[in-house]
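Ops channel
N.P.: pipeline sanity check, posting one input/output pair.
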């Protein structure tokens, strides 16, 4: 399989050695940036010069506390400085001028400028998202006090090289899936997110781990995962993809999540594929009623309204937390949501979450579960999943495959179809029409799993609210 992986994904694979290598652990880089570096510095055998790579990191990936020194070099010494960073573009409607910010370093658009000729060279790449990763070169335009009006000093963008060195070709990715068996594809998916399939004893363990990727590939998919400690929740949701946001503990406000009325600025749901509230049992909310109302509206329709501002977004919301072994719903009669913050102790809110991930099916992380082989570049893989969110053909296939039972609850139907669609994209991206689908495999790995995930939500609802008692989901079937 290794030869076929390198044959069909020649520019998208890197050699990852997370089991034996401590080099990247010491650098504390997210997976997508680590794989970008590996692809840049590895030879055909997966070897790289650690000194050369370390020097690149030292020169071009500065720490936040090094920014003042960098700014001094740009402004005081008039140096041209290169660094690998996230850049966010701001276009002033009144003046017609473009500027930029570097959110990781606190540099705002008021302090920067982009010359017209530079804008024309790089505009298509710079406006590819709210924040774009790239290798940027910065310079300085000194102030001109004699000009009328006076011109303040500005940091200028001189060059930009997109972080993504390849074209994301969905048709190519879909077709490549045909060259691998189902078990091989599971191994490829796990390797893409830094895990070793051979380190898992059972198929269910692998599939439960991969279930965490469903919000990466499907819009507005809302999930709850409760699991024991040490199963990798924070790593998958926070370190693999540059398209998501992980918030761990602390205080969460409506302003941060949805819209800040003082700054007139949209929150994190507007700019991310998914928002994970990690260690949710330790998160507090400044105004419980305010946050609950905002969440209910957004989880239902993807629309949020704060004051006179209304907007829509496609982010999924994931609640992720640890749970004591005594509270795990192994038999279906334990109220697992008792350990969640008060804001989630309302059935009308919980019902809007589509499915539940039984995180206790994932073993505690050990070294054998870390990838040590050729694998898909995490940055490439997550970019593919990001693009697949826009592909509506899979939902059309699912609509034609599933028989909805009489009197099925509308929210149950929507949840099951959404989860099944996400599984189809993840596990069988090569299907283009209903006739391509192996119905037995679809039922086993997409529909049945979606029904089980929704059923757990239903059972927990019955424990929260007597209105839901005896209302488990009816039987959905493949046509």
């Amino acid at each position: 399989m290794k030869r076929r992986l390198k044959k069909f994904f020649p520019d998208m694979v890197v050699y990852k050695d997370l089991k034996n290598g401590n080099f990247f652990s010491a650098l504390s880089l997210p997976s997508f940036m680590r794989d970008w570096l590996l692809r840049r510095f590895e030879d055909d055998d997966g070897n790289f010069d650690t000194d050369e790579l370390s020097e690149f990191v030292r020169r071009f990936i500065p720490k936040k506390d090094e920014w003042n020194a960098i700014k001094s070099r740009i402004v005081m010494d008039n140096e041209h400085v290169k660094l690998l960073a996230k850049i966010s573009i701001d276009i002033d409607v009144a003046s017609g001028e473009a500027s930029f910010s570097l959110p990781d370093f606190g540099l705002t658009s008021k302090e920067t400028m982009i010359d017209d000729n530079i804008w024309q060279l790089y505009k298509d790449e710079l406006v590819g998202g709210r924040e774009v990763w790239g290798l940027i070169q910065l310079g300085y335009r000194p102030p001109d006090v004699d000009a009328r009006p006076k011109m303040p000093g500005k940091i200028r963008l001189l060059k930009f090289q997109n972080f993504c060195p390849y074209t994301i070709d969905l048709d190519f990715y879909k077709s490549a899936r045909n060259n691998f068996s189902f078990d091989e594809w599971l191994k490829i998916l796990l390797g893409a997110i830094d895990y070793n399939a051979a380190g898992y004893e059972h198929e269910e363990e692998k599939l439960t781990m991969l279930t965490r990727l469903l919000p990466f590939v499907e819009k507005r998919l809302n999930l709850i995962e409760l699991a024991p400690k040490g199963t990798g929740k924070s790593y998958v949701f926070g370190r693999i993809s540059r398209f998501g946001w992980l918030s761990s503990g602390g205080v969460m406000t409506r302003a941060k999540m949805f819209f800040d009325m003082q700054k007139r600025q949209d929150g994190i749901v507007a700019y991310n594929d998914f928002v994970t509230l990690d260690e949710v049992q330790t998160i507090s909310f400044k105004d419980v009623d305010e946050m609950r109302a905002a969440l209910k509206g957004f989880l239902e329709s993807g629309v949020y309204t704060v004051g006179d501002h209304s907007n829509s977004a496609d982010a999924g919301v994931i609640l992720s937390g640890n749970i004591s072994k005594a509270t795990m719903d192994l038999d279906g009669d334990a109220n697992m949501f008792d350990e969640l913050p008060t804001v989630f102790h309302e059935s009308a809110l919980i019902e809007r979450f589509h499915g539940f991930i039984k995180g206790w099916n994932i073993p505690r992380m050990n070294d054998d579960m870390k990838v040590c082989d050729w694998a898909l570049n995490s940055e490439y893989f997550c970019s593919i999943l990001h693009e697949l969110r826009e592909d509506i053909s899979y939902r059309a296939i699912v609509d034609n495959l599933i028989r909805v039972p009489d009197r099925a609850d509308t929210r149950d139907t929507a949840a099951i179809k959404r989860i099944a669609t996400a599984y189809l994209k993840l596990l069988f991206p090569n299907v283009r029409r209903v006739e391509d689908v192996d119905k037995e495999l679809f039922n086993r790995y997409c529909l049945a799993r979606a029904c089980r995930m929704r059923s757990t939500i239903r059972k927990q609802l019955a424990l929260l609210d007597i209105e839901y008692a005896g209302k488990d989901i009816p039987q959905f079937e493949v046509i």
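N.P.: looks fine end to end. The first helix runs from residue 2 to 8.
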